[in-house]
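The protein record quoted in full:
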Amino acid sequence: MSSMKNAPNTPVVIGVGQSVDRLDSPNYQCWSAADLAAQAARNAFADCTAPAALLARIDAIVTTRTFEDFYGAPAPFGKSSNFPRSVAKRLGINPPHAIWSQGGGNSPQDLVNEFCQRIAQGEFEAVLLCGGEAISTIRNAQRTGQTLDFGEDPDGEVEDRTSGIDKFREELARRHGILNASIGYALAENARRAHLGLSRVDYALEMGRLFAPFAATAATNPMSAWDVPSYSAEELATVTGGNRWVADPFPIRMVSRDQVNLGAAILIASRRVAEEVGIPAEKVVYLHGHAHATEKPFLERPDIGSSPAARRTARLAIERAGITVADIAAFDFYSCFPIAVSNVAIDELGLSADDPRKLTVTGGLPFFGGPGNNYAMHAIAEMVKVVRARPGAAGLVGANGGWLSKYSVGIYSAVPRPWRDWRDEALQAELDAAPALTPDATFAGHGWIETYTIFSVKGTPRYAVILGRSSEGLRFIARTAESDDETIKAMQDSDPLGRLVYVHSDADGVCHFHFLEEGS
């Protein structure tokens, strides 16, 4: 590693680790999220083969945000008041800096981008990134009547960047029943189907063909959150008792599964520190290209079925790495729902669902597991192992946050490369300057359905939401009125896309719709 002396502050990934605590394992530990993050960090230190020497050099610990801290939901068994310091305490370290990141599935890749830059600038020498989720353990304890104690209040300063959840919330959307990710993504997915002109059946099979290779990858991954069957496209696409509706067009096998116990960690250091603590050359991985961008608010996007921010970010990161799509040996596209993959991999980069390079190295969020904001940490950990094993190869990780709201990309390779101080302001300014649509919050009159979803609870339809356009091109949002089972049945019986509706607003500022025949 003598060549490292040429650029001592070049940031490098030197260790990765993961942890899993399956309920059905004979070695089940009933770990908390902090326990899982700490175990993943121990594995990362072991991976770099110099744990004792490196522990003392860590000057910052940075953690992603658990779902409990992201959404501000009550923690039934308590939680840490200072998650980074809880993990550090388990590792026996007390770094001068502890940082608690904002939420979003993009955050692990954003953190790699940020702290590589800060190491390159000489601000830090060695940084531990980590996170964990114990959602499966928590829900199992609630279901079985167990009592756990995950509350702790460790000492130490922390830079708490807050959850950032308010950035994802739009009051008009919430008022009309867009209450969770499955509803927002279903609207985006059906908008994409409308553009492609596909029937419900054909589009469902397309989603199934996209995700079947993900399930097959997860089935062979020992770090998956559970034993995964190798589903066929038809088994993923067909609604059955075991594959119930969540939000049209998604049955439950098509959506991220957050009931997991998983942790992941990444160690980043300067080349100088890596050399001084004796990291073997074959362990060192470089970030060749990266980019990040934020999309317009959900209801303001001219095309609900596409995210220009995600697509441009992927292209820019590849360009910065000095390669083409054909040069990339492995991919991992964030896969909370099919459109998060197809928007970038299929529609922008021109890949196919059966690309022999595969579109995931983990198995994806519905099959490997969806540990909240920390999934991409697992993807990066897996990608580092892939490019280490294939000298000269490049791997792409795409990390998505919100409702196709934020996207971050990293290109990894074991080939040495000097650090470049790339900034994303110009890309963001260009995206922000593009025309947006302002939805009419009190629309009344006739219009046509642009996209829709029917939200179900345990397979039973509860209400439908539509986005539409008036004859003047105005965007509106509406939902079915309470107990309007007739409209929901009509939507189930016949494809609603493009159908004529009449919309009116009630006293609470909620727009409702019902169908009209053309010419009415």
Q: What stands out?
A: Confidence is low (pLDDT under 50) at residues 1-5. The domain at 2-168+257-433 is CATH 3.40.47.10 (Peroxisomal Thiolase; Chain A, domain 1). Residues 26 and 37 are 20 Å apart (CA to CA). The chain is about 30% helix and 20% strand.
